[in-house]
Amino acid sequence: MWTIFLSGLATALSLLVVDLVVPGITIDTLTAAAIAAASVGVVNAFVKPFLQAFTLPINTITFGAFSLIVNGLCLWLASLFVPGFYVTGILGFLLGPVVLSAVNTFLGSYLDKKAPAFMKDGSELNAANPSSQLPKSNASPIAMSKSKEGSELTTDSGSQV
């Protein structure tokens, strides 16, 4: 749950940076940035895979350069659903997703490193108690092994039984 929140926060902050850096992208309020982050996430999750599959032949011919157009189209499509979030002009269409991706990657990794342990998936919480991470096994501590002299039973510590 917290990882989704941190991802949305990173995207909203990234959109605000993109608003400052890229001409052609405008975000009016912080609320519009938060809603735009959700809209970008939804468009990237549901619409972008279909666009990528549909444009695969041209993307192959252009060695992936057409992905810039697909990313710009997704950002523009997300802006259609959010009042106060506008993508206009060729720079906003092409440069906006590139800057958004770079800033979002930086902020996402920064927030992931600086977030408290309770905001993460819980793996750090169990690190203090390593015995809780061991798999439960019904196997006997006695294992069969062959020695040079013959077949003997030994324990995991190597003592003979």
Describe the structure.
This protein is 56% helix and 10% strand. The model has no long low-confidence stretch (mean pLDDT 83). It has six helices and four strands. The protein has one domain. It is mainly alpha-helical. β3 and β4 form a beta hairpin. The strands form two sheets. A two-stranded antiparallel sheet has the order 1-2. It has a two-stranded antiparallel sheet with strand order 3-4.
Which strand order spans the largest sheet, edge to edge or round the barrel? 1-2
Terminal CA distance reads 51 Å
Biggest sheet overview = 2 strands, antiparallel
Rg calculated over all Cα atoms = 26 Å
Describe the global form.
Answer: globular
The succession of helices and strands, N to C, reads HEHHHHEHEE
As a percent range, the share of strand residues is 5-15%
Please provide the count of β strands. Answer: 4
Provide a count of the helices: 6
Task: List the uncertain runs.
Answer: none
Whole-number mean pLDDT: 83
* Total domain units: 1
Helix content bin: 55-70%
Q: Structural class, please?
A: mainly alpha
